[in-house]
Amino acid sequence: MPAGLLPMASAVQLAVQQHPSITDAVATLAQQTAGVDYAKAGYYPQIRAGMGTGTSNSSSTGGGSLLANISASQMLYDFGKVDSQVGRSQALVRRQQAMVIKQIDVISRSTAEAVLMVHRYQALTDTARTQVDAVDKVLELAELRANAGLSTKADPIQARARAQGARAHLGQMSSELAQWRQKLRTFVGEAGARRVSVLPGLEDDALWMSGTPDFQLLPDVLMVQAERQAAKAQLVSTRASKWPTITLDAAGNKALKGVNPNTYERRGMYHSLQINLSVPLYQGGAADAQINAAAAEEVATRERIETALLQAGDQSRAWKELALGGQARLADVEHRKQSILSVRDLYREQYQLGTRSILDLLNAEQEIHQADSDAQGLMHDLWQYRLEYLAATGRLREFFGLNNKIIQGMELLP
Q1: What are phi and psi for residue 309, nearest 5 degrees?
Q2: What letter does residue 249 receive in the DSSP assignment?
């Protein structure tokens, strides 16, 4: 990073590495990933061990006993119950991955917008400072002519009033710049105090619109697609719940004290091995209700995918048209600015010759400042439109060089 300069890409890369909302999303992703392992545990044996004590009224047990017991259960076949739960957990992981990507895009866009606004008010502050210098020169010229008796005392008064107005405008622009610097600092820390620069890509008329956007890779679309996969898995799971589950169960216990109640032997041992089948016979319609709900959710997610694609296409086209319109207007503003500069120089010569009033010269300086401010505002609006287009097409990460980087412990793949 150049000393004293904060490029937009560097600001974005710094912000995504430290913003707490991304940290939160990544931590939630770790939680969802652990849920996959939890679901996969259904494939493996479940082993339990424990101890118990009790008494029996049977005369053969001879009173109380202390038992150590162990049991194991292995699912043999469940008609897809565990498979569907694993699939649902994996879909939720993919959804959270898309959420992390979306949060990275949100912070990238917000940081880039803050950099762009700081850059805007840097330019407007410089323009306001240039206006102050220009009006001061007119004031100096007016005072020289008034002192020499070549013009009235009203000329310096009018010029001084304009100079005060120009300084007030400079103070306003400086205040706006300070406010946006503070907002930028919330993303990048003390680096936000540096002078900023925009990416060359925002100034390039072709780079920002190159290629065909793939809306299928947008985070919102990826999230809804993952939700649909989760809904499908939930539908399979609810349907499978109406079918039996077959397990292999083993159990054993040993009396550490007293008589084993299963064998009626003092300090006796007992064990069993069984294949069990269990199926719910009646649940009051709960299973059917869950199936209907899961089926409706799967249909709803399918429609949400279409909605997300339509919204993405509409937003990208809107920002693209705004950018093209701003680009066309920018040339007209630059032409107007050059014309006013020529008029200002002519008015200065005519004022020195006494054939032009001080108001004409001051108004020309004001027109130059207004044209310069309009050009800066329109240029930054154009850059803002291009930035929004990149966000709407899901290309912010590519544009700011975040792909294939480790973002807070998560590798960001294209």
Answers
A1: -65, -40
A2: E
Question: Of the candidates 272, 242, 248, 286, which has an alpha carbon nearest to the alpha carbon of residue 69?
Answer: 272
Per the listing, tokens 């701003």 go with 326
Q: For 5-53+63-397, which CATH class?
A: mainly alpha
List the pLDDT tens digit at each of the 414 positions of the chain: 456 789 999 999 999 999 999 999 999 999 999 999 999 999 999 999 998 887 665 545 455 788 899 999 999 999 999 999 999 999 999 999 999 999 999 999 999 999 999 999 999 999 999 999 989 998 898 888 888 887 778 888 999 999 999 999 999 999 999 999 999 999 999 888 888 988 776 766 665 566 677 788 889 899 999 999 999 998 888 888 888 999 999 999 988 888 888 888 888 888 899 999 988 887 778 778 888 888 888 888 888 888 888 888 888 888 888 888 887 787 787 777 777 877 877 888 887 877 788 888 888 888 888 888 988 998 899 889 888 988 888 888 888 888 888 898 888 876
